Amino acid sequence: MRPRVVIVGAGFAGLYAARALRHAPVEITVIDRTNHHLFQPLLSQVATAALAPSDITAPIRWLLRHHRNADVVLGEVTGIDVEARRVAIHGRDTPVSYDYLILATGSHHAYFGHPDWEPVAPGLKSVDDALEIRGRFLRAFERAEWATEPAERAAHMTFVVVGGGPTGVELAGVMPAIAREALRSNFRYIDTAQTRVILVEGGDRLLASFPEHLSARAKRDLEDIGVEVRLRSLVSDITPHAVHIGDEWIDSRTVFWAAGNEASYLGRALGVPLDGAGRVIVEPDLSIPGHPEVFVAGDLADFTHGPKRVPGVCPAAMQQGVHAANMIVRSLRRQQRKAFRYRNKGDLATIGRSRAIADFGSFTMAGRIAWWLWLFLHILYLAGFRNRLSVLLQWGYAYVTYERGVRLITGTERSSASG
Amino acid sequence: MRPRVVIVGAGFAGLYAARALRHAPVEITVIDRTNHHLFQPLLSQVATAALAPSDITAPIRWLLRHHRNADVVLGEVTGIDVEARRVAIHGRDTPVSYDYLILATGSHHAYFGHPDWEPVAPGLKSVDDALEIRGRFLRAFERAEWATEPAERAAHMTFVVVGGGPTGVELAGVMPAIAREALRSNFRYIDTAQTRVILVEGGDRLLASFPEHLSARAKRDLEDIGVEVRLRSLVSDITPHAVHIGDEWIDSRTVFWAAGNEASYLGRALGVPLDGAGRVIVEPDLSIPGHPEVFVAGDLADFTHGPKRVPGVCPAAMQQGVHAANMIVRSLRRQQRKAFRYRNKGDLATIGRSRAIADFGSFTMAGRIAWWLWLFLHILYLAGFRNRLSVLLQWGYAYVTYERGVRLITGTERSSASG
């Protein structure tokens, strides 16, 4: 029997780990709660109706169809027994045993002690989240169109995005253009150009992981687009009708949450020290203390052995997934393990429909060329997905016409944010 | 003040009525429960993961964006007062008044006195229905892959489609090919080629609206593809684990319902005679008895004044919508009204991935050429949608590679059909 590697989570870390083990003498079991791998960097594009969910997802089984040594399980892992070396899956009687485990369940948005805000201010981590945000954004204009009171109408047309990281900046930056361009001719009673988008950030600058001058540029670009940026502003309460920022209540019926992540609760199941955000503090080789057969990769790992903390971005997750896989191969060959080293290839963030900022360490970029670079790299990375051409067409269409192809409200509302 | 025309329902009848009134001296209000028009003839393609929801939908507002005399309301009509000439909308205090009303709320699938079957055997009328069916179909293979008992595995891989009309034939006809071709290499423990698809029809032939020899051809084609067709078979019970057909229990965890429609309940609100299926029996001009200002168009109308009953198909709905609109224009011009006449341009049904049958009255067609005709006509009719190119690409891809591009399970299960 070849040793069994169980990979929990088929995000970038898990998927790249499975791929790296394709020709290794192991049996692989990939377990995920969903049937698809999600190209997370483009999730905002789904939330803002530019792309369809199927453009940025692919079935995990399909991605691994040529990997004869890989099984895929659709299921939720509920517990890990590191001593007995097995994981429990919800609704399944027999646990899955492993010889090596790669835990890559990432993070989800967190409300910092205010779980009651979740129903009124949804976050953006999954396809379902993106559809929820898309639905709320589009429904708000429907409600504004038929509101009778001017104040109510204004409240429906006021969107608050909490959190000035890449997700918040991307969401907020796209909204004014959709309102002004794509929706304007579609309504009779409201002027969608009067839409207010407010981006709230607790710190003293946006996109804090970028150099300061790029943060300043992003703020200026957002303000040009029509976003009200509020720095050093803390949200102290969110209700279905208003948001309390500092000492001001802003009437808004639609709030989106992009203010912070919390590590997957499965990190706690390992019984090893966690950092303040619940991430697992890993050894230099990405294994956990006392269990060289257990690895943590991606957003769930806190890697403190390099010159800087490894950021929670896709390239880092891919690199860690591949590293964990390689360390398993080295163990099988009785070779010594190596320490993980993060190779920062640069960092990009989009601002609205045609601007971006880029930080390559030795040089930085901003503006339209950075946006084209962002677009090019993201289409390139969708390789392995069959969706590239469709994405390109959808974007091309949206870019040229300002129209949004995927303005579809599906499902029922998760909870009524605005009655 | 120009007279107000209220159109309830933006399916084919409602949308074509609104379009026909574009240059008429009226104000139009289109009310629909969803924000999108659905190209219903392709809904099975979404349910079987060949197309994405956004490929076959378009926002109603967007479709009517150049119609300066048309408003769109996202809302559910809960009542109609034909004496006071107004409609009530859920959650809105003030009703909407009309001078002319076109009621075009269509039909939905019906369980003939067995509403308890709905959770275990979902039907196909809306985008959400299609996503539900897609999710159940894909999840069934996931469960089969991890079933431990052979009998349980077989039950997960047995799909029953109830109803041998166009929807049932289309659903059943596509499933074997997906199982055999698209999914086969993706699973390790099950052989998806062993999937059983059973199509159950109570009458003595499939597609009863077509000539007999085409029904026979459809049956033969389906059997070639691998569908078990059971005619003269009545479903007497459906549980989460099995279907009772005749005097046999068939173990199946996944049942889809395509056995019949029931008219929208709003027909009852008009206070005029209905037929046995709940449809409104309309006058020759499509108005209702005693209320020349109220029209019923599309699937909700029972038109009995022609040589044959008008079938519940899209071309009939479009023609009736346009006719109702034209009658309003004639009334405004004090011209006499005309009787509706259905122009049957032919009838098409697909069977699986590359066959179809076509009935043009004077001649009929079957096989591959009929399928290409079906494809061509449907892409042609998606005109006015921007989605044509995307649809063409998705289909081209699916056709050439046998892959299904939209194999995405989203949302939570509506109800647990298989534990």
Detailed description of the structure:
Two copies of one chain form a homodimer. Chain A has 419 residues and is of the alpha/beta class. Chain A folds into two domains: 137 residues, 3-Layer(bba) Sandwich (FAD/NAD(P)-binding domain); 192 residues, 3-Layer(bba) Sandwich (FAD/NAD(P)-binding domain), CATH 3.50.50.100. Helices cover 29% and strands 24% of the residues of chain A. Chain A has ten helices and 25 strands. The longest helix of chain A is centred in the first third of the chain and has 20 residues. The termini of chain A are far apart.
Task: Write a compact overview of the structure shown.
2 copies of one chain form a homodimer. Chain A folds into 2 domains: 4-33 and 75-109 and 261-332, 3-Layer(bba) Sandwich (FAD/NAD(P)-binding domain); 116-259 and 354-401, FAD/NAD(P)-binding domain.
